[in-house]
Design a protein that fits this description.
binds nicotinamide-adenine-dinucleotide, Redox-sensing transcriptional repressor Rex (chains A, B), alpha/beta, Arc Repressor Mutant, subunit A, globular, 9 helices, DNA-binding, homodimer, about 45% helix, repressor (chains A, B), Rossmann fold, transcription regulation (chains A, B), 2 domains, about 15% strand, DNA binding (chains A, B), CoA-bd (chains A, B), seven-stranded mixed beta sheet
Chain lengths: ~220, ~220
DNA sequence: GGCTAGACGTTAAAGATTTCACAAACTCAG
DNA sequence: CTGAGTTTGTGAAATCTTTAACGTCTAGCC
């Protein structure tokens, strides 16, 4: 019943929910009591109609002529986004990117935490990075426990092999930062974040999709 | 004329072009002469009809009953993606993420290169990271030259201030890794990459959008 | 030279997402 | 208590994107 409701929410909306949640948190921290879709729109750079539409998938959360009650909205999204339970995450590949993530560790206002990290390099294994213990990749299956989510920051050539092992170890979601497009069974969810491509795409848009003329402010 | 043609290409297609290019490069490196949309589809995980459609925006690049000539396609995309000229990029904020990017530097098969980096911390300034000199942020305007693209990896609280200065310095595209949604004039293009949100969204999908039942391979 | 299998390019349909625009419902000042 | 002013929630339209389906053309074989 609960799940079915959620299943109807468009993916595009679902991707914006954490953004809304974060900003509502800020507002709440500032002691703000109410907020309109217009205000929110300016802050998160999403059209106000889109915001109202997004919220409406969850029912009537606001009041006409008033806007949204920050506290109410926040507590609603806290439930919706499962902010009360922390999802434990594994990170594979403690190199440049992996180290950056471990130091950051998404803990600020998040419900995710990197619990354990793995690497193949003997020099890294046994150390702690950002408070997270680095284990040897050979011990992955043994030490990973029942973590459901993994961040993949190994060299591209290793990606598929490690992904296969992750799947066998019971992982059901992978955030893949390698350029390799990995193949997994259909019950596993993979999101690719391909930073090199993001940069190239930005440059392409810059050159081929002119925006407004330059105008001095 | 040339520009107008490109302007008609859907954004979704444009974002996939660097991906195609990278894979074609791999194929070419392996000495492969021809490739079909089906093969490409399996490698980059994009529906083959979508690939054919994407390519068709540029005209008839393939041959029926044969597929695409790798060399031809590659040289076509090289032109289209301006792979021959290197776009110089500045990076602001040499912290965890910034350091990772500098060490990587997108140089592998890319047309982008981080030329210069800036930071506020006296200990970092003057050093080199990944072969890139780190300058003090106070000297940014003076030392940036005419770079058009910047990567922003400063703390969120600094993001808007630095963005304003980047715009004044003539930057027209910003890749923003901070959680702050920055405001810029309409002639400046900003892409947000919000890693914390990507992770949260993945977890949300995992919990609320069940995929196929688990099945043993 | 003719035939078969394969693969493109494209039309059209379906699906997803965004945006417009406005009636209804509310707030708040006076 | 009233009325002016806000702001929601949502049909309907517009836009963008993906996918299916297939006619057409080519390669390669016999
Ligand atoms: N650093 C960046 O800015 C950047 C940008 C875009 C893409 N990427 C991609 O992200 C990935 C990681 O990049 P990076 O710069 O951190 O690379 P890196 O070489 O610094 O780190 C890779 C780490 O993985 C470890 N490793 C190697 N094989 C392993 C294995 N089989 N099991 C476990 N660990 C293993 C290595 O010891 C190393 O610590 C790469 O695929 C890269 O292409 C990185
Ligand atoms: N590291 C991650 O994994 C991660 C993940 C998600 C988001 N982010 C975001 O990316 C940004 C950078 O993250 P980080 O972990 O690298 O942070 P960091 O604190 O390690 O690095 C920030 C760097 O910016 C420099 N800096 C501060 N003020 C500056 C200024 N005014 N001008 C120039 N440089 C200045 C600091 O000296 C520091 O070196 C942050 O906004 C963070 O929220 C990081």
């Amino acid at each position: 019943m609960d799940l079915e409701e959620h299943t109807k929410i468009p993916q595009a909306t679902a991707k914006r929910l954490p953004l809304y949640y974060r900003f509502l948190n800020n507002l709440h921290g500032q002691g703000k009591m109410r907020v309109s879709s217009k205000e929110l729109s300016e802050a998160v750079k999403v059209d106000s109609a889109t915001i109202r539409r997004d919220f409406s998938y969850f029912g009537a959360l606001g009041k006409k002529g008033y806007g949204y009650n920050v506290e109410y909205l926040l507590s609603f999204f806290r439930k919706t986004l499962d902010q009360d339970e922390t999802t434990k995450v594994a990170l594979i590949g403690v190199g440049n990117l992996g180290t950056a993530f471990l130091n950051y560790n998404f803990t600020k206002n998040n419900n995710t935490k990197i619990e354990i990290a793995f690497d193949a390099s003997r020099e890294r294994v046994g150390s702690e990075v950002g408070g997270v213990r680095v284990e040897h990749i050979d011990d992955m299956e043994e030490k990973m426990g029942d973590l459901a989510v993994a961040i993949l920051t190994v060299p591209a050539s290793e990606a598929q092999g490690i992904a296969d092992r992750l799947v066998d170890a019971g992982v059901s979601a992978i955030l893949n930062f390698t350029p390799a497009r990995i193949t997994v069974p259909s019950h596993v969810r993979v999101h690719h974040i391909d930073l090199a491509i993001e940069l190239q795409a930005l440059v392409y848009f810059l050159k081929h999709y002119p925006l407004d003329e330059e105008e001095e402010e």
